[in-house]
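Fold it.
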Amino acid sequence: QVQLVESGGGLVQPGGSLRLSCAASGSIFSIYAMGWYRQAPGKQRELVAAITAGGTTNYADSVKGRFTISRDNAKNTVYLRMNSLKPEDTAVYYCHAERVTSSDYVGFVDRWGQGTQVTVSS
């Protein structure tokens, strides 16, 4: 079974930095895109950033210039470097793997991580 395991969340003061990591495990052949979504209380889950296997990135306007997504294809791992954090960045951050191919499945599957809490507060 393909699983995503996130790490790196926590409590940080406004203006601070955090780095999230997400590792995909299992008998994986390929992952088209990996990304990070977030969901704040009472709000819908939204895309924060995503990166394809080829390195093409996409960012939400609210995080452009502050967050950087990167990926290690050999390790099936995606990272999110978050700088200049604001209280409005507070949310549960979820890792997402899109169009995963694996010996465990026929065709493509998408997978979500369990989520990691990021709290920005003084």
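The mean pLDDT is 96.
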